[in-house]
Write a structure and sequence with these properties.
Bound molecules: iron/sulfur cluster
Oligomer: single chain
Distance between the termini: 46 Å
Low-confidence stretches: 1-38, 223-228
CATH class of the largest domain: Alpha Beta
Number of strands: 10
Largest sheet: 8 strands, parallel, barrel
CATH topology of the largest domain: TIM Barrel
Number of helices: 15
Structural class: alpha/beta
Number of domains: 2
Length: 412
């Protein structure tokens, strides 16, 4: 089989490849086992109930953080393959993401679910949130979004802002939003999830989660201390959310998405690294569905090859282990936050490293620059600091100073 043929086969074939499945991984609890109506070969194989919202969404859905003007064909392609959940934000590609979705989904609004977001800090006013929502609705060419997220929550205080509740009550009354959620991928994520669940604040959550941050992955691949799982409390927090019937969508499933680096290791196998990563996440038992930035039609085909959540095989596990070993020294786990307080200049180290990932791993400098510019504090202090305060602060042996200073130079 030629390389082209093999990759075409892999893109389409993973959903049926269950030979050699590992025992013990729980099936996703909310899975709708009824085959998707009109399921296309190579397309979405399963729709899942998103918690109390009762929305039935494609288990692998469309993330649009990198969607640019003129890319309506990507949305069309995903739609034709059965993707019915589209996640965006006012900040993505400076509004272009919402505009492109709006253009592509004209005449299809009743066949899809739309989610958008805005960061609501501790002092954000209800009027600001309403303006942001109305801007999103205009770009999306719709009267309502199915879910509106409090975006990038990394501080419990941000969840206590009474203006959020005032905004939600009014927006729901006006029919502009149906359900609410929180999204998070940075420090104190587990604490924020626990707090939100205790207050029963949201119908859904969009959370950074991948095999490399799942304690059970490390239990499965090694008993040594070569790898240390760093999100010990996040799976438990997500399970508590599930107990309250909060729908959980995962993001950052590919743990940095160095897909090209993995091509040599995929040779001869039945699945790609990306498909293996999706299979892991969708089989954790605490995730309903996953979104991923879809930036080419080939990628869409490949990712949807893992729809249906086939079980994780030994070969999948080998790919995940290989990837974890390759990226361990530079991949910031976003929400572990063990380094908090180490920098006397308040550089948000995990966020800086996240923006670095967008540039160096995703190869998306424009998005990385936008995200870096949105940080409250940049990493300019790293240029003149000798790095001693944060030396050794990362419990995963990332050399923070060595990565943060070049990130500032690259993205500022
Ligand atoms: S190098 Fe210095 S300024 Fe930069 S994160 Fe480390 S301690 Fe903070
Ligand atoms: S730099 Fe290290 S300690 Fe800090 S958030 Fe990232 S992985 Fe955790």
């Amino acid at each position: 089989m030629t390389e082209l043929d093999r990759r075409s086969f892999l893109r389409l074939g993973a959903a049926t490849g269950v030979a050699g499945a590992l025992p013990g991984l729980a099936a996703t609890a909310n899975a709708n086992t009824t085959p998707a109506t009109g399921a296309v070969k190579g397309g979405v194989q399963r729709y899942v109930r998103l918690g109390r919202t009762e929305l039935q969404i494609s288990d692998i859905s469309f993330g649009s953080s990198r969607l640019r003007m003129g890319e309506e064909r990507l949305v069309d392609h995903a739609f034709d393959l059965g993707v019915n959940y589209y996640d965006t934000a006012e900040s993505y590609t400076r509004g272009a993401s919402e505009t492109v979705l709006g253009n592509a989904l004209v005449g299809k609004r009743d066949k899809v679910y739309l989610a958008s977001k805005m960061i609501a800090g501790p002092s954000t006013r209800a009027g600001q949130l309403m303006s942001a929502l109305e801007g999103s609705l205009e770009r999306l060419r719709t009267d309502y979004v199915d879910i509106f997220f409090n975006h990038a929550v990394n501080d419990v205080d941000a969840l206590k802002n009474p203006e959020w509740f005032e905004f939600v009550e009014k927006a729901k009354r006006q029919g502009k939003i149906r359900f609410t959620g929180m999204s998070g991928h940075a420090g104190y994520l587990a604490e924020c999830v626990e707090y939100a669940v205790s207050q029963d604040m949201f119908d859904t959550m969009l959370l950074a989660q991948n095999f490399g941050e799942d304690p059970s992955f490390f239990e499965r691949v090694t008993k040594s201390f070569d790898f240390v799982a760093n999100q010990q409390s996040l799976p438990n927090a997500m399970l508590k959310a599930r107990e309250k019937d909060v729908g959980i969508v995962a993001m950052k499933v590919l743990r940095g998405a160095r897909l090209n680096d993995m091509r040599p290791y995929e040779a001869g196998g039945d699945t790609t690294f990306a498909q293996a990563a999706f299979k892991w996440t969708l089989n954790t038992g605490y995730v309903d569905a996953a979104i991923i930035s879809m930036t080419s039609t080939d990628q869409i085909d490949e990712y949807l090859g893992a729809s249906g959540a086939p079980e994780v095989t030994d070969a999948d596990l080998d790919l995940l282990k290989q990837y974890a070993a390759m990226t361990d020294a530079t991949y910031c786990r976003h929400a572990c936050n063990d380094c908090a307080g180490a920098c006397p200049f308040n550089v948000p180290m995990a966020d800086v490293l996240r923006t670095r990932m967008y540039a160096t791993d995703y190869g998306d400098f424009s998005f990385a620059r936008d995200e870096y510019a949105a940080l409250d504090v940049d990493a300019s202090a790293c240029l003149t600091c000798d790095g001693s305060p944060c030396a050794g602060a990362c419990t995963h042996d990332i050399d923070i100073a060595k990565l943060c200073a070049p990130t500032h130079q690259m993205l500022s």
